[in-house]
Amino acid sequence: MSDLEKISSIFNAKIDTVKTKEDLQSIKTEFFGKNGQITLQFKNLSSIEPEKRKEFASNLNKIKEDLTNQIELKNSELENLEINEKLKNEKVDVTLPVRPFQQGKIHPVSQVIDEISSIFSEIGFSVAEGPDVETDYNNFTALNTPDDHPARDMHDTFYLEKNKKLLLRTHTSPVQIRTMINGKAPFKIIVPGRTYRCDSDQTHAPMFHQLEGLHIDKSITMGHLKGCLDYFIKEFFEVKNVKMRFRPSHFPFTEPSAEVDIGYRIENKKIVIGEGDKWLEVLGCGMVHPNVLKNVKVDPKKFQGYAFGIGIDRLAMLKYGINDLRAFFETDFRWLNHFGFDPLDVPTNYRGLSK
Ligand code: DAH
């Protein structure tokens, strides 16, 4: 057997045992690498006697071609195997039932904001928004609360700068200013949003939610305010009757100002809203102060109206029997699963708000 025939038969025996691309690569190196058996034969060509060289070279080329073809064949065989293996593992059985998946829940605060928006939109309010970072001017000054006003102390403000020009809004009332300065009377808006105060216990969180209401037109009175709030409370708590009382109060941006309480009683350890001899404070309100209107270039001789501010978290706690405000913001999955709402249950007045 000639040298070339020997190389060929060794190769044939080896290529049959190849199982992986790594095996194939090592054969390639063994025969065609820098010191591979075929490569060395080419290097030796010059030492062969001239008469035999031509024939040897032609045989060598044939073998080289044969081995190269075999390597390529093996390579595509291995690639096919690999693809088939993948297809086998990744196949999808479309006849199988869909896998049950974990559904997300809507946070009670988001749900309540949707409910409130739906209730007020029924009587012609539109939803306005403003930024969490406010100027001191919009949050206080324009709302008739100058620098030395004692009401500022009630707000435990988070200031963002030493010079106290920027802050985290302490209430949603600055959106009254933003809306009126950028628009034209009449105005009829609600403003749900995040608010901040430096305060934290079972009933206070440093970040909480408020709902502002504002209705300005030519002849809006306290009577309209009462009617509007009576409608809202009944719709929100889904009750037919609500005992409500207005207590005189003070806010710099309203004159007169009032706080509103609703009646309730405890029955079987549960709170029943609307009736009973106990009172629960739910919101602050009043007739917008003429100074506020002047600050936003609305003529107080032509226009007047009411505003109110409601704590959204408090309403959510009352309606859905949640007794610790802090739980709202702890992002506990189990809590959310229990108190959260189905994402497809968008509240509407017709279908029932919380069903
Ligand atoms: N901004 C007040 C607060 O955070 C609530 C409030 C009271 C808003 C009376 C009003 C209002 O618009 O008229 O305590």
Q: In a few lines, what is going on in this structure?
A:
The protein is α+β, with helices and mostly antiparallel strands and about 350 residues long.
Explain this structure.
This protein is an alpha+beta fold and about 350 residues long. It contains eleven helices and ten strands. It folds into two domains: about 5-90; about 110-340, Bira Bifunctional Protein, Domain 2 (BirA Bifunctional Protein, domain 2, 2-Layer Sandwich). About 40% of the residues lie in helices and about 20% in strands. The strands form two sheets. Strands 1, 4, 5, 6, 7, 8, 9 and 10 form an eight-stranded mixed β-sheet that branches. A two-stranded antiparallel ribbon has the order 2-3. A hairpin with a 2-residue loop joins strand 6 and strand 7 (about 255-265). The longest helix has about 40 residues, at about 50-90. The termini are far apart. The structure holds 3,4-dihydroxyphenylalanine (DAH). 3,4-dihydroxyphenylalanine (DAH) binds near residues 285 and 307.
Named CATH topology of the largest domain:
BirA Bifunctional Protein, domain 2
CATH superfamily of the largest domain: Bira Bifunctional Protein, Domain 2
Helix count from the secondary structure assignment = 11
Total strand segments: 10
Write the CATH architecture name of the largest domain. 2-Layer Sandwich
Radius of gyration: 40 Å
Which of globular, elongated, flat, extended, rod-shaped describes the shape? Answer: elongated
Our measurement of the CA-to-CA distance between the termini, rounded to an integer number of angstroms, reads 92 Å
DSSP strand content: 15-25%
